[in-house]
Amino acid sequence: MRYDLYIGDQTFSSWSLRGWLMFEAFNIPFRTHMAGLYSGSLKEDLAELAPARFVPAMQTPEGFPVGDTLAMAETLAENHPEAGLWPKDPEARALARWLVAEMHSGFGALRGDCPMQLLGFVDGFKPSDAVMADLARIEELWSIARKKFGREDSPWLFGDYSLADVFYAPVAARIAGFGLPVSADAQTYVAAHLADPVFRRWRAVGLLKSYDPVPYIDGMAVSAWPGPTPLAAKACDGPSINDICPYSGDPVTDFMELDEQVWGFCNPGCRDKTVNDPAAWPAFMDMVSAHNS
Q: Which of 81, 95, 245, 286 has the most CB atoms lying inside 10 A of its own CB?
């Protein structure tokens, strides 16, 4: 039972991030298809998913299309009740749906002035009063959820990671990417998203593509991304310690150095996404750990 998920550019498509997290974070099998969000081929790429016009969109294992992240979320929750996409407690689940719906339909100033970008920290950005009002409302919602249903041992809004966290992951990225002023509690929640290995894998793949001009922030000064500093890795020549790619199981052809050890991958994409953030990839880190233990 596998879905087909159609997404746009990882570095900039906040809606696509929401759609991808629904599958990746809850271990729902899917296959990814890239649609031309900026290349002009979006309509053609989504032709088989009519009436879909935007990313993300998905095709169910039964073969019918579902567009819009809210519809996708509810469809997946119906089809996979065991995955825990929504909180189990009825009151918590109602509040989580409220938070998701308000995020989906609101916060226009934040969306317009601070488009999601995962390249780095935009220097010197000054938020408007309207953006500050959006942030105040967001913090209110996060605080209520955490106080009523959060747990001390978890950073997420309702204790376990849920669709509420999926929908607010791009908001966290906006706060981080533009250095928006929020409370210490809110900043802790933002930092949890940036440190989440699933979020980091999304960003690492997005960094494989370069842009000229850069959408949304062209001409703005950008500093280092405020998330965890990746392990220092670089592409290099072989041979490698391993003969088989940790992801595909195919023979290695491309190589990366980490801590003076050389590791192999089956293609440049596998290598380069790992170079971008080695610790985000469990299969790779498990291989390294097994060799060095």
A: 245
What is the CATH code of the structural domain delimited by 3-83?
Answer: 3.40.30.10
3-state helix, strand, coil in the chain (%, to 5): 45, 15, 40
pLDDT tens for residues 24-55? 999 999 999 999 988 889 999 999 999 999 99
pLDDT at res. 37: 87
Region label for 272, one of left (φ > 0), alpha (ψ between -120 and 50) or beta (otherwise): alpha
Pairs from 153-162 (Cβ < 8 Å, separation ≥ 24) = 155/188, 155/189, 155/191, 155/192, 156/192, 157/96, 157/99, 157/189, 158/87, 158/92, 158/95, 158/96, 159/87, 160/84, 160/87, 161/25, 162/84, 162/85, 162/86, 162/87, 162/96
Report whether CATH 1.20.1050.10 matches the domain 90-201: yes
Phi, psi of 256 (to 5 degrees): -140, 145
* Bond before 56 cis per omega within 30 degrees: yes
Q: Which residue in 145, 111, 146 sits closest to 127, CA to CA?
A: 111
